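Job type: complex structure
Entries:
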Amino acid sequence: MILPAGPVLALSGGVGGAKLCLGLDDRLPAGQLHIACNTGDDFEHLGLTICPDIDTVLYTLGGVSNPEQGWGLAGETWQVLAALERLGADSWFRLGDRDLATHLWRAGELAQGRALSAVTADLARRLGVCATVYPMSDDPVRTMVHTAEGSLPFQHYFVREQCRPAVQGFSFAGIDSAALQPDLAALCTSGSLAGVIICPSNPFVSIDPILQLDSFWQTLRESRVPVVAVAPIVGGQALKGPAAKMMAELALPVTATGVASHYAQRYPGLIKTFVVDHSDATLAPAIQELGMEVEVTATIMRERADKQALARACLELLCR
Amino acid sequence: MILPAGPVLALSGGVGGAKLCLGLDDRLPAGQLHIACNTGDDFEHLGLTICPDIDTVLYTLGGVSNPEQGWGLAGETWQVLAALERLGADSWFRLGDRDLATHLWRAGELAQGRALSAVTADLARRLGVCATVYPMSDDPVRTMVHTAEGSLPFQHYFVREQCRPAVQGFSFAGIDSAALQPDLAALCTSGSLAGVIICPSNPFVSIDPILQLDSFWQTLRESRVPVVAVAPIVGGQALKGPAAKMMAELALPVTATGVASHYAQRYPGLIKTFVVDHSDATLAPAIQELGMEVEVTATIMRERADKQALARACLELLCR
């Protein structure tokens, strides 16, 4: 197979993004995969800073994630949560014991004044992850979901309310004063980057924060690095999470074209190739009209081989 | 039995103090027992504020403590600690899963800006504790142990180093700017207090911080409330912890008299009655020479009945 000659940057949210990152990690030589993780879903809970997308990516690449649910850790136990419930504490955020060890270790490091990126790199090393994983920023950015029932911090919307309230829009608290993580910024202006892959993550709450932070999308567009995006909607459904429900509530077409259109409007000229599933092949002309090339391939990643195949397709697109 | 007519205040460290507090809680009518806990042993670990003496008192009075070891919780498990060890994190402080729930809940409340005393009162309620338990201060005070190998934060000395380094002295970082917890201060100047019991806790690291904070010992002396102290040394040995080892290293006589002498020098005129064990009856004349009355009784608290009997003896001394 043909591989890009330089570093490749993936932009990722949680589960769906982590699957493609695992495929990319399998395909790329060591040191070549860089991953910018959304931190808009991060939140403060029980005195801890919890970073769900970073942890999902690290657990997945470290081979310790729970294969059934796609998030959390294999062999998880729930002793602390049971004790919190006995104390009458909030228990809607399901913190497993093994997962808690990550949060506690991170809390200790952050309390010593270390940057989130340094702590993330250290955690990656401890989990045996070879890819370079960056939080999009060392500064806090927190996604707010504006709903018919008021504005909710993302995890309140996502976990506590189970995505039930109808979405009206999003904002990213802190984004105006947050800086792109410096090493990530340096990578993207170094001239060495071979390509960017926008993972099949939620466009509104996983990818938008990364691209909008510090006008990152403009930096990428100006670098003229090829950008490939994978549709997170297949056959009118989100493979994981609330993307399809959000699109319907925002009166957007719940299709891969709807996602492409969102990206084309917000980030004109950024995406070179948009990847859709075989089942959405008929959408290609409409997406091409948005100014993107279209690649039709298998995008549903059930098995490891699926992840590797989609990763290969994306990497080959970067080499065209 | 004769009981004091008003509130009784116990000054307590961890295990030994908690035992007497349990006896006092059994003996006194609901609402009459107040406990000022040492917070000099508190420390920051993994982003958490851990309050060992408060928790030992609350767990003991809440009936959930581990009866074998005297600290920690019954039925404890260690899943998080095992995961922290797998991450290569510090694991010398043995955090159990159930205990962690307390620390996490407290961290969440403190992060919202609540005072430690408010969080402690709330925790007491959640654990079904009727006594009023105060941290000695809402401001951080941290005991430093000065040793032949340098100065160590208390838990580093106590847990990590297992009390091995030879002690040369102590200091209490933050004590000069810390205020006595306001409700505790109000109780002691209200005129209603019927008596104070200094529990058989470590004089140097459990009782000294409480008495020295905000000149608390002078406030108590000026209130003319009767003060009874129970010797933590019996037959030349500490019933629990490093008090005897510390006294030997400080070249003090390792006897109940040594403790009484320490208190008499530091807090002249404070203690009315010093309680020693039957096995130390011969020390009575030397202690009386320090200006204290001496009560000889059984001070070793193995069974619940022992705790109740010593509590009864102390309460009756307050009524004389």
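Summary: The mean pLDDT of chain A is 96. DSSP finds 13 helices and 14 strands in chain A.
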